[in-house]
Structure formats: C-alpha cells, structure tokens
C-alpha cells in the first residue's frame, strides 16, 4: 500500500478520492488550507470518517499558493509516514464570466492556483521521490484542455491547459528517475462538486452588462446544457474510482491518461492523437525511453 498526498482534498474530487484511496488501504494525507479556520469542519469530518471506517485518512495543512506551506506539508508526511509514494495534484479554482471582464490580475490568480500551485508542491515533493527512485505523480486535469470549450470559462480553461502541458513535460523529465505519470481527465460534472457554486466572477462588472445584453443568461444555459449531456448515472465518484484504480495498478503499467467524461465532449479523441504524436516524436528523436518510467541503466 502507498502513502498518498492529495491537494485540494477538502471537498469535491479531492475529498472523494482521499476517502476512496483510504478505503482501498492506502495511507492518505488529505491536504487543504486553513485547517484550523475555514476548513476546520472538513478536518473534523475527515477524522470522523477515518474512525468510522477504520482507515488511515489524515489531514495536513497545505496552501498551494505558498512554497513554505508546500514544504511543510511534505515534511509532515515524511516525518509521520516515513515516505511518500504518490502525489496527486487536485487543487484548483474555477471562475466564470465574460473573459474581457476579468482583470489580468484575476487571470494570474487562477493560473497561480491551477498551475504554479502544482509547481510549488512538485518542488517540495520531487526531491524525495527522486531520491527513492520510485513514485507516481497523478494530475487531475480537465477535458476542457482539448475537448469542447463553451464560453465564459476561459481563464479556467487556459490554466488547466497550461497544467496539462506541464504534466506532459514532467512525465518525460521524471521517467529516468522511475517516477510514473498519469493524467486523470474528468469531464464537466455539474453536480456533486462545488466547482460552479464556489467559482469566482470577474471584478470589472462595468463590462458585464454589454455581454448580458447579447448573451443573456449564457452561463446558466451552458451549465444546463452540459448537465443535459450527461447520462443519468453520471457520478463524481467515478473520478475517485479511477484514481484508486490508477494508484492500485502495478508500477510501470499505469495508463498515461484516463478520461472520465460523461458528456463525451471529444477530449479523449483529441488527446489520443496528441499523445500518439508525442510518443512518435520522442521515438523519432531517440528518446523513446522517456515514454515509461524506469531506473537509469535499466533499459
């Protein structure tokens, strides 16, 4: 069984995955920020779940906006568990509204959480994974990076696309350290998470009326139509189940990318082409060993 650190585990995909991984027998650190303040109740809930189900589910303070916090969280895991096997990048923040109405600073803030946050946690955790020459980095992406992209979600889509590109590059750079990469790609689950409910909105409200006059009620329409595309049995727990399956798969045999997309927005088709081109290109330039994890000298 593995020691797992999962970011953004206070709610949504993160909380569900943390509990499912713990149920599968792993030691799980559900990371979230402000564990003694706004998220204190979530810490209590996680502790209660661990007691009720007799699983090893723990919480740890981690704000992905702070390198010091990321360093401290990883140090806590190592001090308590003695090792770290799996890092799950799940923390993220969604915003909705006309793109023009967001200030550059707001776009930078979305990028900070969804992209730079993963870099901070990687810089805290990867030295330990590299030293032990083994591990898994699992990224929770989004079908918006390559699938159908409805309007009014551009800052979030742009950030998730950047995170996906970062994950792809990291995969090759970590392969010779025998560190595996999987990108789990959820689709547009419009219920069961708080993404839409807690999402941010643009600061420049002077711009919004012009768009509302022409695109009246568009955001509600997008959310409803995405919900209409999903089959009746679509459940966010499918994402947690996929993460559990990936973590439980034998090292070296995990899939590079896994889609859980009830709305079927086309991302899986486009990603298959992109990932094929990546593999083909690395092979053409003689770097095909970077397509799978392996210790240096093993292949």
How would you describe this structure to a colleague?
- The protein is an alpha/beta fold.
- The protein has ten helices and seven strands.
- It has a seven-stranded parallel sheet, with helices on both faces.
Choose one word for the global shape. Answer: globular
Number of helices: 10
Helix content: 40-55%
Residue runs with pLDDT of under 50 for 5 or more positions: none
Mean pLDDT: 92
Query: Which sequence of SSEs, written as H and E, runs from N to C?
Result: EHEHEHEHEHEHHHHEH
- Category from helices, strands and their pairing: alpha/beta
Ends: how far apart? 26 Å
Question: What is the count of β-strands?
Answer: 7
Strand content: 5-15%
Cα gyration radius (Å):
19 Å
Q: Could you give a short account of the major beta sheet?
A: 7 strands, parallel
List the strand order in the largest sheet. Answer: 3-2-1-4-5-6-7
Structure characteristics:
single chain, alpha/beta, 299 residues
Question: What's the structural blueprint in terms of helices and strands?
Answer:
Layout: E1 3-6, H1 12-23, E2 27-32, H2 40-53, E3 57-61, H3 67-81, E4 86-89, H4 104-132, E5 135-140, H5 154-175, E6 179-186, H6 195-198, H7 208-214, H8 218-229, H9 237-248, E7 257-260, H10 267-284
Parallel strand pairs: 1-2, 1-4, 2-3, 4-5, 5-6, 6-7
Short description:
The chain has 299 residues and is an alpha/beta fold. The chain has helices at 12-23, 40-53, 67-81, 104-132, 154-175, 195-198, 208-214, 218-229, 237-248, 267-284; strands at 3-6, 27-32, 57-61, 86-89, 135-140, 179-186, 257-260. It has a seven-stranded parallel β-sheet with strand order 3-2-1-4-5-6-7, with helices on both faces.
């Amino acid at each position: 069984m593995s020691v797992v650190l999962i970011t953004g585990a206070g709610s949504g995909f993160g909380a569900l995955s943390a509990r499912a991984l713990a149920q599968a027998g792993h030691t799980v650190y559900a990371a979230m920020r402000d564990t003694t303040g706004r998220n204190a109740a979530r810490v209590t809930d996680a502790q209660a779940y661990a007691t009720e189900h007799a699983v090893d589910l723990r919480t740890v303070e981690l704000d992905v906006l702070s390198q010091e916090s990321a360093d401290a969280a990883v140090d806590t895991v190592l001090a308590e568990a003695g090792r770290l096997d799996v890092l799950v990048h799940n923390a993220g923040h969604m915003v909705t509204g006309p793109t023009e109405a967001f200030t550059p600073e707001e776009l930078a803030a979305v990028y900070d959480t969804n992209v730079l946050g993963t870099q901070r946690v990687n810089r805290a955790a990867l030295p330990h994974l590299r030293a032990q020459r083994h591990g898994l980095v699992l990224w929770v992406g989004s079908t918006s990076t390559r699938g159908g992209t409805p309007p009014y979600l551009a800052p979030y889509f742009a950030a998730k696309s950047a995170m996906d590109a970062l994950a792809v590059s990291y995969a090759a750079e970590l392969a010779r350290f025998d560190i595996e990469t999987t990108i789990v790609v959820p689709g547009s689950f419009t219920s069961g998470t708080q993404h839409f409910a807690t999402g941010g909105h643009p600061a420049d409200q002077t711009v919004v009326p012009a768009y509302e006059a022409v695109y009246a009620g568009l955001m509600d329409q997008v959310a409803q139509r995405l919900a209409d595309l999903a089959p009746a049995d679509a459940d966010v727990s499918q994402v947690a189940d996929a993460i559990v399956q990936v973590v439980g798969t034998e090292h070296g045999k995990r899939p590079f990318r896994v889609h859980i997309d009830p709305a079927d927005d086309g991302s899986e088709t486009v990603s298959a082409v992109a990932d094929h081109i990546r593999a083909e290109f690395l092979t053409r330039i003689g770097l095909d060993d970077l397509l799978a994890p392996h210790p240096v000298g093993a292949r």
